[in-house]
Amino acid sequence: MNMRRLLSFVLGLGLILGSTVLLGNSSANAAVLSEPSYLGKPVVGLIIKYKDGVVPVDFFGNQVAIDAAGGKLTKGVDVGLGLYSASFAKPTDEKTALAIAATLTADNRIQAVYLDHFLSSASFKAVSPKLAVLKASSAPTGLTIKDAWSSANPSSPKVSLSWKEPTKLNGGVIWGYRISKYDSASRTWFDLVSNTKSTHTALNTSMFITAGENSKYRVAAITKTANSKYMAISAYSSTATGVATAIPQAPFLSSAGRITSATPVVTWSLQNKIDKGGLAVTYTVTATASDNSSATCTTSSTSCTLSGLQSGLNYGVQITATNARGSSTSAIVPETLDPMLNMQWYLSADHGINANDAWKVTKGSPSIVVAVIDTGITSHPDLDANIVTGYDFISNATNARDGNGRDADPSDPGDWNTSKSESSSWHGTHVSGIIAAVSNSIGITGIAPNVKISPVRVLGANGGTEADIAAGINWAIGVSISGVPTNQYPAKVVNLSIGSSSTSSCYSNSATQLAIDESKRRNVTLVTAAGNDNHYASGSYPGNCFGNITIGASGYYSDRAYYSNFSYYDSQRAVYIGVDISAPGGDDRAGSNLPAGGEIWSTLNDGKTGPGQPTYGKEEGTSMASPVAAGVVALMYSVWPSLTDDQVWNILSSTAKPFDSSSDCTSQMASATLTDGTVINTGFCGVGIIDAGAAVAAVVALNK
Ligand SMILES: [Ca+2]
Ligand SMILES: [Ca+2]
Ligand SMILES: [Ca+2]
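Above are the sequence and the calcium ion SMILES. Below is the predicted complex in structure-token form.
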């Protein structure tokens, strides 16, 4: 949260959520802070602030003052800025940790002690409602499915489901229905709608539907007692299967590049029935020259030959696929040959950040470094050329999975979790590609494909400790950390795609807040994810610290992504607090017929546990929105490296695009004043969606 950037009188609002626990020690004047408050989350260690002039490690290599814990603490690591961690042998509860911390404060060499917890990457986890027991009704019957395509929304496949009420209600009344869809890829059923809270026996839906693909459904009835105290769910009905249709997808040109022959053969990838929207398709290829002369050919095959082209002219080629529902046209083969550009809707002017206009000015400067504080990095042909020296700050070897504590190799060994059946996320690799995948002839392009990424590894198998995260930020911005080589590539931009899944506060003088304060002093912009809890962003740490820019996630239709945290309205002060600005983070509700299904396409690795082969894939989250913003800020610094952090925010916020007019983000806007005096409107999802083209143009104008 950085409303402090907007209005000075909201300083200190970080204390609204959670509570400060002060166990003052009068003789030493030290304080223990439960920081942030995790509502019972285990404590992995302490972060100790020694008084000025105290060296945390003595002549014999022992950490000063931790003996008072009676052997429960082991020596930690330097966090920077006068902070040093200490670890518990195994995670302990907050009450015990606070008691130990209170003991330490008796030592007059210690100024303050903070509790350290694990934070995790900002990934979304759905929670199913629990239903108590009541004798269930019989299953609904007569389920049917029909194609419900509508010319009002031709690219969106839709089906219409209808069914009959259960014949036996067993003393309950209908409260709603649960509609379940079969996922043919994983061969499992999932709940499309957990409950309709309605007695209606029909549903029109476009969720998770792919045109041309069989969609299979079943439905169960949820009944309640008259007093609503008990609920029950019936068995599922018989299944029904149908096929939805839509306009076809734009084909991929495989003969990309400029046309030099007078009779070129243009080829494109074979489309399957899904690509074709479930219907027969014809293709029209158009080649347009710089003098606007053009040639076309039409076929139902996968190649055709253009004729009549003139030698000496460069042509841009486009292909249109048409079926009975309508047509889709590919982008003109762009100057860069990254073939997956058309998966990257988040770069477009219509749905994303308008990257093309920014790229007319800059694709980034190699002297600008973005530090990605994350799970580390994997080797990838679309990333390697832009990776500069990073560091591995994970101090606990078990969490690190590379056999040791801190070391110079930030390679990501994987964060798979066998007990939760979770494969490795390769989160840092995905985030890095969004910012700076190389513009070349393969894969995708980053938003700032000419800047450099410094991978700073802080998230391991169990997430990352605040001590390691703060140390990572400090090192990234050039603060010296004992035992770690000086950073030769200090960052201008720091990306933190990290969030706490439970409500927590950011206190002044916490390790992370001190690191952010130092970032601002050094004119480094720190960008954070708002969190994915569909709740107040002011409760998600470290996004709720002061001075950073906190990013909410938008989807394909310029609305808030369903999981994205949001601002709350402080009616007394008439300001919104929480999310500063939004950027595309993906929203899979938009429909699987869209590029990347409406999610964010970037670099990945195919390893289930340890690293395998480089690949690409889609993800959604404020974890993805934050690097979109970081990439745009990197473009701004590339134009003018001496821009101040405040100028970055003033420009980003005053050039932001409005949300879609039907979006819940546009309601109840309130005005706020920037440090340069500009008055802007802000609301539920921040000031708007980041516009890279407008932001870069404003930097150019400011620098004139
Ligand atoms: Ca290590
Ligand atoms: Ca390592
Ligand atoms: Ca590329």
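The chain is about 15% helix and 25% strand.
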